[in-house]
Amino acid sequence: MLSRLSCAAMIIVGVDIETANLRGAVCEFGAVGLDIDTGRELFVIASLVDPGEVSWDPFAMAVHGIRPHQVLGKPSITEVWDRFLTELEYQTAVTGRPSRVFAHNASFERSQLTHALGPRMTVQFECTVRLARKGLAATPPVNHKLPTVCRALGIPFRETHRAEADARAAAEIARRLVIAAEPTIDRPAERVAPADR
């Protein structure tokens, strides 16, 4: 667990996947890393994923619009995951900042990636739904779906059910709510313009 003092020195990462079915058949992966203070994008990993010979659920295809022919010859989830892990290591090495990884309804991402990756799935995911339930408790939205939480926080978001866009939205939700929930004494003070005389 990161201490309150380290909140300002971290990278917020949003992750999202789309699946061909509910048995770990990942067909798209997205991850977006943000500087917690500025919201600047530090990295984006987005790729269609070839899940191999799997059955495709018609409902899943209707939701995300990805079709089997679109993923033929694309990287495997193992290849994309290794790129993601390498990027996390690189960011920590270059910036000296640890990463906190979030997903909206993280139990889904966690279970599907564990199914797909087995013991390679070692990253701890935090949940932006849980974060939003706590952080927006004073004025709770009608639900905690990704577009609803984005609207509640004033985050521009056009729902696509595609991994990169959803990962970016999850990262920004996490960034804003972590800042609100974990203020730090080492965060640089805002410059205040002198009052007009």
Class by alpha and beta content: alpha/beta
The CATH superfamily turns out to be: Ribonuclease H-like superfamily/Ribonuclease H
Number of separate structural domains: 1
Instruction: Write down the Rg.
Output: 18 Å
CATH names the topology as: Nucleotidyltransferase, domain 5
The topology string of helices and strands comes to EEEHHHEHEHHH
Beginning-to-end CA distance, first to last residue:
47 Å
Describe this entry's structure for a reader.
This protein has 197 residues and is an alpha/beta fold. It has one domain (4-181): Nucleotidyltransferase, domain 5 (2-Layer Sandwich), CATH 3.30.420. The chain is 39% helix and 18% strand. The protein contains 7 helices and 5 strands; from the N terminus they run E-E-E-H-H-H-E-H-E-H-H-H. The protein has helices spanning 58-64, 68-71, 77-95, 106-117, 128-135, 146-153, 163-181, and strands spanning 11-19, 26-35, 41-48, 99-103, 125-127. The chain has a 5-stranded mixed sheet, with helices on both faces. The chain starts with 10 loop residues before the first strand and ends in a 16-residue tail after the last helix. The model is unreliable at 1-6 and 185-197 (pLDDT under 50).
